[in-house]
Give the backbone structure.
Amino acid sequence: MKVVERDWNWWGYFWRVLHRQRIRGITQWDKKVVQFSIKELGCTRGQTLLDLGCGSGEHTLLLARKGVHCTGIEIAPSLVQYARKQARLVNVKIDYRCMDMKNMAYNEHFDFCTVISGTFGFFSDRQNQSLLRKIQRALRPGGKLLLDIRNARYPRGNGRSWMQFNRGYLLTTSTYDEKRRREHGDCLFIDKAGRVNIPTQNMKKETIRLYTLTEMRQMLHKAHLKYLHVYCGFRLPPEKYTLSYKHNIVIIAEKP
Ligand SMILES: C[S@@+](CC[C@H](N)C(=O)[O-])C[C@H]1O[C@@H](n2cnc3c(N)ncnc32)[C@H](O)[C@@H]1O
């Protein structure tokens, strides 16, 4: 069997477009996320919003269709290309930027910032903290942040599963380092031509840092962001965080 190393540009499209489209109920979920965000942040037509790590742009597009002026930052060129095409197809203007979020340098530019689907914790603790500070700088005074993060209090272990996908077979494994609170995901896809697609060596080293609510509150404080409240995910009506070890938590903060 031929083994092919694929970089994030390839896997990004694989996960965020091909695989995502096959998730049952995803369109409804996207609508819910946006409905929740608009209600919680209080976004209105003509205001500005930054969607950080916007992926294939589903949420960005739904927000922009409500008249919010959206900017989406995404590192994978394949996803930016896809997101731009989707916006063009429905004649909606969105400022998509293909860049590393660590390098953004906005100053009091946005009314809102959204970081959705666990798009936080990709870097070292110091860099994650510095990213929060950059978000704070990017917001106008009174601007709000919606942060949907993986909850470190949710019990995690090591897992492995096979599934059939796109006339091929997909193996996913996840390992959790309890001490460092870092999760690593690996995958392998045997496509219909029999090729074994694997991540590059660099990707294999990547881990995501999971934080508790207490840690996040400290980090927000350090970044001069005022913690407002937290919810258990995107259910409507919003469900208050009850220390119930939910998989994801949604934090709302504000730039004073
Ligand atoms: C978990 S996905 C979430 C995508 C989208 N927010 C959603 O909810 O569907 C995280 C996204 O962040 C992007 N990403 C990862 N590291 C990044 C970085 N350093 N700068 C910009 N985007 C990044 C990934 O390519 C991926 O599309």
Remarks:
- Residues 8-152+211-254 form a domain with the Rossmann fold fold (CATH 3.40.50.150).
